[in-house]
Amino acid sequence: MSAENHSPAAPLQSIEAVDTGLSNAGYIASRPISTAIYLAHHLQKPILVEGPAGVGKTELAKSVAAWLKLPLIRMQCYEGLDESKSLYEWKYGKQLLYTQILKEKIGSVIGDADNLATALDKLHAFGDIFFSRNFLEPRPLLRALEQPGGSVLLIDEIDKSDQEFEAFLLEILSDYQVTVPEIGTVAAHTPPIVLLTSNSTRDLGDALKRRCLHLHIGFPDEKLEARIIASRVPGIDERLLKQLVSFVQQLRALDLKKLPSVSETIDWAKVMVLLHTAVLDVAIVRDTLNVLLKFEADIEAAGKQLAGLTQKAQHEAGIA
Amino acid sequence: MPSVSSLRSLLTESLETPLPAASEPLRRFLQVARGAGLRVSAAEGIDAARALDVIGYGNRAALRDTLGLVLAKTPDEKKLYHEAFDLYFRHEALTATDEAGDGEGDNDGDRESAQSPQTENASALGELLSTGDQAGLATAMEAAGREAGIQNIRFFTQKNLYVRRILVGMGLRGVENEIESLRASGTPADGDHATLLETRVKRLRESVRDFVERNMLLHARGDNEQFREELLLSARLSNIDRRDLDRMRVLVRQMAKKLAARYAKTRRRRLRGQLDVRRTLRKNMGWDGIPFVTVWKQKRIEKPRVMVLCDVSGSVAAMAQFLLMFLYALNEALSDIRSFAYSGSLIEVSETLEKEPVEQAIVKIMEAVGWGSSNYGNSFADFEDGWMDFVTNKTTIIILGDARGNHNDPRTDIMARLSQRAKRIIWLNPEYHSMWGTGDSDMARYAPFCNLLTECSTLRHLERAISGILEDAC
Questions:
Q1: Which of B206, B230, B254 is the last residue of a domain?
Q2: Over pLDDT 70: what percentage of chain B?
Q3: Is residue A153 pLDDT above 90, yes or no?
Q4: Cα distance from A35 to chain B (closest Cα, Å)?
Q5: Domain, as residue range, for B288
Q6: A79/B266 CB distance under 8 A
Q7: Cβ separation of B264 and A202 shorter than 8 Å?
Q8: b/e sequence A186-202, b meaning 16+ C-beta within 10 Å
Q9: By residue range, what is the domain housing residue A244?
């Protein structure tokens, strides 16, 4: 299995190797995440990543691609996406242009054929050029299969697409091949590492789930989040970091419409560094709360408890 | 044609060849996982075996992550899976350490010191009991448990049966005979030994009971849940126990989610392969009408607009709760819901239902108009006065009620006008079909104006009715 794809095989020797590789690429992975990537490679199965928005689902694919130095091919799903936008399309305009040219040159092709039968024979010999590779516009899925050294294929927000499209993906996900009626079946040179992400706005079909490893990324615990922030916002003060993380973790325990995610914590940390903050106090938290919380009602609800939350965060970071 | 048996052997062969050999513990765990309520297909079982081939059994944490990735496919399933995994492997670890730890070393000493004075009549179990060989007992218990088919336990009423079966399987009868003959011999040493055996048998009984309970937890939980759910789905909604309400809410939400996922499709769908000639020509005017860019026909799918009229008088209130809960959980698949509650008179309750969680809203509505005696004529008149203008030929009217108007004027004339305006009228009646039209029921008078009239007294009926409404809209 691993003999076919030498390039990614070496760094994917063990779960620990995945862990270090990803963290070198700037992605601090929890243990299940590394295990999932490791298994995805060795079992050649796609990973379905679910979890709330902003916990790093898309980032994971980017980091895997960066780490393995493979091209990242990303397909954003939306309502109404179909195979002409995801798999391939005929270059219709080009076909039309060629027909125009052919019309003018048809005399030289048919030449001196004196009856219809010979003319048709000559045309047949000319081949079925209009439906050949030259006129095929590969879209993300086909491109991913055709990468000679393998690739990372990210199918983003699969839950936004229609059910029909989901069914259409099955052939690619299980066999890494697609069928183009006019050309035949295109199989992958090297099976790509496929990641599908979903925000669970709708339930995905069982058939799709069965073909995938299912990875659920939730909000990280305090330790992991601190490591993630430290890696994403280099040079952040240790004590500030502790306060930030403790504050956000407490915030997630509140009853809010949308809980702050890792990406929001990172943004907030960047803001704090920019403002040269050393110690979180109520005033500065109140001013910057809109980085963390995206609903007016949430800001209001959290606003009432800011003093308590900040104090506890300070306490946990060891600031009296 | 090949016979069935040859086909089966062929199938198993082709299935089993790619399977790695070391799958016995995995097979047992899969059984446990299914028992816990995970839906594990055969294909996923094979995937799990392949994954374990790569990961190995050495690292417990990696094992837990790996099987979690392969077997559990929703957050709920993940939770169940983690519980099952921990339970199963704690159980495994218990027996394993017992076997490895208290191995032969200590037992030899024990055996000599506690050598029974009278061995001719001793049974194997008696031997184990008198020497206090815990590891041996645990192994025997496991074996007897497997023999008795403990993994098939489903209901707590079966507990005693399995305890008995396992004890008998371990050779309890032999020990009982032994105790009897010891007592009969009459020497004080034998008497003491008999007492010792008796207390140990008692202790054994307890540990077997423990063992059975643990196994029931492992194997039967999922099934029990499923069994209850099945029961609730087809129970009459007016008879639902208060303690089952929470579970019902979950069920209603699940059902609604399923339906919403099925029908919350795109509002516009491309009709593949049908060229929209007019719009194509228009789009390509810049190129002299040579069609470089094509436009395809599209079909608009309408989401149903629904107005629900719920009877919240005492007789139908239970049903109304669930209908409202269902419809509000469905809002992805519906474009517009307006809801009304009536008993003696009718009020609009859309706002209450939108602002507050359904459970609380329903309590409020009940306080406002509920529990009275119904007057259909009066309520319909209220509706005509206030909201008839909002009914268009795209509106689906759902009426929930038993049509028992306490001998008031049914005002069928309003129904007639309503049926002319609305796209359709669907009447859900929670009474048995045979009761319609009896006593003060005006069902027969309303029936001619309904496009669909159906009995609706269980969750299953409700699901079928609403699924029908959504289907017609597509």
A1: B230
A2: 81
A3: yes
A4: 7
A5: 244-300
A6: yes
A7: yes
A8: bebbbbbbbbbbbbeeb
A9: 222-316
DSSP string across B143-162: HHHHHHTGGG--SGGGHHHH
pLDDT over threshold 50, residue B17: no
Amino acid identity at A81: L
User: Nearest-CA neighbor of A201 among B261, B335, B178?
Assistant: B261
Q: Are residues A60 and A189 in the same domain?
A: yes
| CA distances, B382 to each of A254, A305, B375 (Å) | 44, 47, 11
Does B268 contact A at CB distance below 8 Å? Answer: yes
SS3 label, residue A124: helix
Question: Which pLDDT value is given to residue B5?
Answer: 58
Residues A226 and A300 in one domain: yes
Give the other-Cβ count within 10 Å of B274's Cβ. 11
Residue B5, chain A, CB below 8 Å: the answer is no
CB B316 within 8 A of CB A120: no
Of the residues A12, A14, A18, A35, the best mutation for testing chain B's interface (the one with the most B CB atoms within 10 Å of its CB) is A35
Is pLDDT above 80 for A235?
A: yes
In a domain, A140, yes or no: no
- Count of structural domains, chain B: 4
pTM of the predicted model, to two decimals? 0.66
- At B70 the three-state DSSP class reads helix
Predicted pLDDT of residue A119: 81
What band does B97 get if pLDDT is binned at 50, 70 and 90? very low
Number of H helices, E strands in chain A: 16, 9
Taking Cα atoms as reference points, which of B374, B252, B358, B363 lies closest to residue B311?
B374
Q: For B189, phi and psi rounded to 5 degrees?
A: -60, -45
